[in-house]
Amino acid sequence: MSVLNDMKLRIEEKIKADGLDAKEVKGKIGLRSGKLFAFINPSTPDDPKVIAKLRQAAKEILNLSL
Questions:
Q1: Domain positions in the chain
Q2: What confidence tens digit (pLDDT) does each residue in 12-26 have?
């Protein structure tokens, strides 16, 4: 499994645990990180730049440290 996919799963868990609107939050994170959630899967290659942007977006939007 890729690091990006692991991050995606943790973000989805946080969204569900907090009872947030998944489409809205995923859209915001996707816009901030430059990577759409629908395109992240276990075979997605890890890109250090995308990982850094996704971490930053998750921290800013969900206060989630990845």
A1: 3-62
A2: 999 999 999 999 999
